[in-house]
Design brief:
This is Transporter substrate-binding domain-containing protein. With about 375 residues, this protein is an alpha/beta fold. It folds into 3 domains: about 150 residues, Periplasmic binding protein-like II (D-Maltodextrin-Binding Protein, domain 2); about 100 residues, Orthogonal Bundle (Helix Hairpins); about 80 residues, 3-Layer(aba) Sandwich (D-Maltodextrin-Binding Protein, domain 2). It contains 14 helices and 13 strands. The strands form 4 sheets. Strands 7, 8, 9, 10, 11 and 12 form a 6-stranded mixed sheet that branches. α3 crosses α13, α7 packs across α8 and α8 packs across α9. The radius of gyration is 33 Å and the shape is rod-shaped. The two termini are about 50 Å apart. About 35% of the residues are buried. The N terminus is likely disordered.
Length: about 375
């Protein structure tokens, strides 16, 4: 009986201790003043509703964290990513909540909380149009396609040569000078292979006829396989789009947002690009045909295109990998408390519902 009471007492003590462990206190100066939280328009992570109030995944997350930590705050908007980062590094704001990617360069001049969203870079292109045919052209100019054509041509010439050797003494069409006979054999082989019409001047010798039958049957299969391969390649290319990997970006005109993590990635991959101040500016340039592709954070890109640019589409590829987090000035006293509260929040049903509300089926990350 005593053991049972002792066990119950221990459980009660642990239950009472758990909230104390989860609760991290903030310095008094942070709870007594109004914090300044920088943000910028980056839907669906931070945006303004019809009434002009801020909302979005990052905004709702910050509100949830601030409520749990018991701090007062106000939002201050910045126009660009660089302006928001500058506000953090210079201490103009206590934190920045938007769609900020954690990078090595940024980490040298500011702090970040634990990441709350994992994503990557997306590539936007025109839906159809001339650019969409670049993959098809690339297929016809590829080494694999050329190799297939030359192989098929080589087999046809080999069969034509054998027909000429078999028939040159028994068929006047293949007699005379060697070049004339060779051309006649190659022509008959090509006509028989492509089934372009009834092959004239067919072989008369037994070896020639046996070879002709084998070649006509084999050519049907060969042509069918060749056409199927080309069709599959073209279909795959069209589905994948003008860009399949980062190497394809080097051969087209690319756009990116200046000051974003996309710029760092493109520079590291030696990809040339045109800079734009805002995503919408780059997407308008893409729509107008001044660039062939626009690279930006995938969820932001998909949201903007869905809302305002139905003529564009995001390709089914993801370049690089990115983590979004809340940015803080270096050595900010709120960092530990934010991390503990954030890690607890990311395991909650509230966070699941929040992501589903803004991202729907794309909420998983």
């Amino acid at each position: 009986m005593r053991k049972a009471w002792a066990l119950l007492a221990l459980l009660g003590w642990l239950c009472g201790l758990a909230p104390a462990i989860a609760q991290v206190s903030l310095p008094a100066d942070l709870t007594q003043r109004e914090l300044v939280i920088g943000t910028r328009v980056a839907p669906p992570f931070s945006m303004k509703n019809a009434e002009g109030a801020w909302e979005g995944i990052s905004i709702d997350l910050w509100r949830h964290l601030a409520e749990r930590l018991g701090v007062r705050y106000r939002f201050e908007e910045r126009d660009t990513v660089q302006a928001l980062l500058d506000a953090v590094t210079t201490g103009q704001v206590d934190a920045a909540a938007a769609a900020l990617t954690v990078t090595a360069a940024r980490r040298q001049v500011m702090d970040f909380t634990q990441p709350f969203f994992a994503t990557g870079l997306g590539v936007a292109v025109g839906r159809g149009g001339a650019t969409a045919w670049l993959p098809v052209l690339r297929t016809f100019l590829s080494f694999g396609f050329l190799q297939g054509v030359l192989t098929l041509l080589g087999i046809a010439l080999l069969v034509g040569t054998l027909i000429w050797l078999f028939e040159r003494k028994h068929h006047e069409a293949y007699g005379g000078p060697p070049l004339r006979g060779f051309i006649a054999g190659a022509w008959w082989s090509a006509v028989a292979m492509t089934q372009a019409g009834a092959a004239q001047d067919g072989p008369r010798t037994l070896p020639g006829r046996i070879l002709a039958v084998i070649w006509m049957v084999a050519s049907v299969v060969t042509i069918a396989v060749f056409i199927a391969g080309i069709t599959s390649a073209l279909t795959t290319q069209r589905l994948q789009g003008v860009v399949r990997n980062v190497g394809d970006l080097r051969s087209i005109r690319v756009g990116a947002v200046s000051g974003s993590s996309t710029v760092d990635f493109l520079n590291a991959q030696t990809v040339g690009f045109e800079s734009y101040g805002l995503p919408a500016q780059g997407l308008r340039a893409l729509k107008a045909g001044r660039i062939d592709a626009f690279v930006y954070d995938r969820p932001l890109l998909a949201w903007t295109i869905q809302q305002d640019f139905p003529e564009l589409e995001v390709l089914p590829i993801t370049l690089d990998s990115q983590n979004y987090a809340i940015a803080l000035p270096q050595d900010h006293p709120m960092r530990v408390a934010l991390d503990v509260t954030l890690l607890d929040t990311l395991r909650s049903e509230w966070w699941t519902r929040t992501r589903l509300r803004y991202l729907g089926n794309d909420a998983a990350n």
